[in-house]
Every structure is written in structure tokens, then in C-alpha cells.
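Hello, quick one for you while I still have it in my head. I'm working through a protein record and want to make sense of it properly. Would you mind checking whether the C-alpha cells look sensible for this chain? I owe you a coffee for this, so here goes:
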Amino acid sequence: MIIKRIYKSSWFVKVVFVVSLFAIIFIAGLGYKHITNLSKSTEMVIHTYKVNVELEQILSYLKDSETGQRGYIITQDSLYLKPFIEGRKKVNNSFAELKYLTSDNPEQQKNLKELSSLIDKRLDNLEIASNYAANDQTDLTRFKDVFQEGKNYMGAIRNKLNYMISIENDLLKKRKEEYVSDARFTPVFLYSLILLTLVLMYAAYAKINSNLEKLKKSNQQLEIFKESTNQSEIINKHGSWRWNVEEDSFYFSDNLFRLLGEEPGSFAQTIENFMKFVHPEDVEKLSSQVDEMKENKDLPFIVYRVIHKSGDTRYLKAYGKSTVNSEGITQLLGTTTDITDEIDHYNTLEKRNQELELNNKELQAFNYVASHDLQEPLRKIQTFLSRLEDREQDNFSESGKKYVERINNAASRMRLLIDDLLQYSRTNKSDEILKNSDINKLLEDAQQDLAEVIVAKNATITTVKIPEMKVIPFQIQQLFGNLIGNSLKYSAKDRNPIIAISYDKVEASDDQQLSKALYDEYHRITISDNGIGFEQEYAEKIFTLFNRLHNKDEYSGTGIGLSICKKIVDNHSGFIFAKGEPNIGAVFSIYLPLV
């Protein structure tokens, strides 16, 4: 795996080429060294041969001198002295050559000195013997001694020469071995290194070939990516541009031309040509931003208008960020987006917001009318109806009394409906601020408001300790009042009301009802009763405005109370769910976010 990972790495080819280059240089160096060593070995072998030849030459020259001397002694012919005279000269020449050839060998230099002394003595001996012969004194005892002495010198010279030749022969043997070793090892070594280099270069070639295949695929993918980018720019109505800071040159993408209402490449890519399409009222602003961009190498978000040749005005938003590429060149990369549709949507939204604000004002005016103008005639109706009952009660027929009662009930229901509508319209979060509140106190206050009904119905209410929460206090008190009041209103006739209030903390992920929750944790307050209950199919409809499950003659109410509860919980970004069983009771679960 490691080898495979190394082979696939981007630096593998570079390493292989560097190694191959150094290997070639190394091979060339070693090859030169080995060839030099081989040449040197050859030269040393030849050098040894030369030394031996010169040593043998010296012996030959001495023999020639000795032979010439003997010929002269026997014949007294001076012609035989010529080899003696020339031999001395030749010996001197050979001796000088030997001295040069053995200059790197101290032992041979020492032997040469000794040999030189022996040769000089031998040559002097030959000259003395020749002088005896010239004076015809060969019969003298001294001549015989000189002659014998020369023979001894000659033996010593021969021994010295043989010793020196043996030394050279030992060197010759050693140098021949070095030569043979170099001659045998150099080709093998060079071949091995060349083979190794070829293997490395083949690996590099294989890697290059593999990279070329990958490069082809990458180029194909880049072409696909480029085309998809072009299509993406067209679909998303944006174009890209690039400013080369050092060269002060611009590049526009094809779709940037289209955003200007032009065909790609229809004009030279310069900022001056681009400015020709900018709305006259925005030219100064954009020019100022461009100048600042060139100075600060940055372009913040800017919105401006362009005019197409068709006369169509479009809104564009541009943004640019400075970058430095791998070659150290500073460029400003930017994008320009057509936001005309967004501007239109924004204008439409603004118009609708204005309409909504107007509706809110009208609603406030309605609230005022409902709280004053509508209730004023209603109060008068009830007042005059009360007077009519007090003064004319005895004069009414039975049917008249029923009509007066119905008018009175209708007026009371009308007043209750107006009060509930006002209460519903005022349940608005926008004017209130969430704050930490004692929920137990709010619950107690809600029960105090219903104290008379609780006592009248002999109801039992059980509660638990509830922690502080961040809420709109009066709305939460209203929520508790409506839910407890609802349980009292719809209590069963055959049993006393029992209302249980419990609390726990839940994780949104653990409760299936909180699938659309925006928070992770919630407070859950549960209010359950043993009243008449309802069918579960109506569990959501009961929170709808004016929705009633029972006849108004059976149970009083306007159908707004639970709608107010739903609105209060929505104001707190919470949830409220109802669960009922006919003749068993109902359970209301309130979820408020833990914030």
C-alpha cells in the first residue's frame, strides 16, 4: 500500500527524474573513474615492462662492452673498443631512463644508486683491463686480478639486476591482477547502473503516461465543468469577471455579456466599454467604487443599473475579492448578479407591507369602534330593555315576555362576542417583550379570576411546581384562564370537575408531536380534566376561530377562547395540542421553548 501510494503521488515523477539524472551523472563519474583506473593499470603494466626492458638492456650493454674488451685483449684490434665506448654511453642513457621510470619507487631508486655504483666500478674495471692489454701486460698478475675483479663486478651487477627485475615482476603481477579486476568489474558495474537507470526512467515514463491519461480525463471533466458553469450562470442570472492587477486587464465571462444584453465577446473587455452600459445616474457611483477597487484591491457589494440597447433597465449586484495565485500574481475575482426580479419582489413586498400596515390601522380603528361605538348602542339596548322589564313587566303577554328574554340573551351574547373579539385582536406579540416570569404566580392569578366558578362547581384543581420561564406574563395568565375556564365550562353533569396541571421538560427529538420544532428542548405544561371530552377528529378544529362543537343553548361561549390560546402559544414560538375522549375528558399539552 505504501509503495502504491508513493507511486501515485504527484512528486514521484520529479523524484524519479532527479534520481535518474544523478544516477547518470554518478554512472558517468564512476565510468570515468573506472576507465581512468583501467588506463592507469594498463600504463602501470606497460611501465613495469619498460623498467624490465631497460634493466635487461643495461645488462646487454654491459655484456657488449665486456665482449668488445675481450676481443680487443685477444686481437689487439681497436675496432673491438667501439662496443665498449658506445656501451658506456648506452648504459648511461638507460640508467637515466630507469631513474625517471622508478622515480615513484623509493626502493628501486635505492637499488639504482647501488647499481650505478657497481656499473661505474665495472666500467672503470673494463677501462683498466683495456689499458693493460694496450701495453701488452696481459701476463702480469695484476691484470689477472683486475680481470677477476671485473668478473666479480659483473656477477654483482647481474644479481642486482635480477633482484630489481624480480621486484618489477612482483609489481607486474599485482598490476596485472588490478588490470584484470578493473577490466572485469567495470563493464558489469556500468551495465548494472545503466539497467537501474533504465528501470527508473521506465517507471517515470509509466507514471507520466498514467498522468497524461488522468490529465485527459481531468480536461474532459474541466470542459464539462466549464459548460455546467456557463449554464449555471445563465440559469442563476450571474456572470463572473477577473481583473489582473499587474497588467490592468479584465476578463468577462460569456454570461456577463448577456447580462448587459450583448452577445459574448461583442466588445473589448475593458472597464471603459463596460461603463457604456451603466445607467447615467449610477455611472459616478460605480466609477468611484472601481477607483477604490483599484486602490484597495477589493470591491464590496454594490448595486447599480444597466440599460440594454432595447431600453430595458436591469439591476445588477457586484462583488469582488482579491486573491494571489500560485505564481504570485494578484487578481481580483468577482461576480455580478442580475437582481431585477429581487428588486421587483422587494418592491411588491414593500407595497404589501404598506397595505398590511394600512389594514392594521383599520383593524385598530375597528377595535376602537368595537370597544366604543358598537358597545354604546348595545348598552343602551340592554338599559332600555331593563327599564321596559321593570315598568311594563305586568303588561306583557307570555309571548312578549319570551321575546324580551330572547332579546336580553342575544344582547348578552353580543356583548360577550365583542369582548372576546377585542381580546383576540389584542393578543399580539409584537408589542410585548418576553421576560422571566413566575409561572406558578400566573397560574394562581388565573385561578383567582375563576374563583367563583370553581367554588360553584365544587371543582378540584391540582398543580405542581413549575420553573420560571421567559414569557409574556399577562398572555400566559390569559392562556391558563381560558384553558381552566374551558374545563369548568365543559364539565360533566354527573361528577365534580377534577383538573390536573403537570409539568416536565422534553427533548424535541423524543416527542413525535414536535417534528417541526425549531428548538432542541421545550417546557411541557399539561392540563387534563374529567369533563365531557370530544371526538379526536375535532382536535385541531377546536382551535379555529368561532368553531364550536356544541349547541349555544347547551354551553355558553363564542368559540374564540381556544383560538386565543392557540395565538398566545404561537406568539411564544410554541405548540399546543388537544386530546379528547367523549365522556372521559380532555388533555391540553402546551410546549414552550426552553430559551
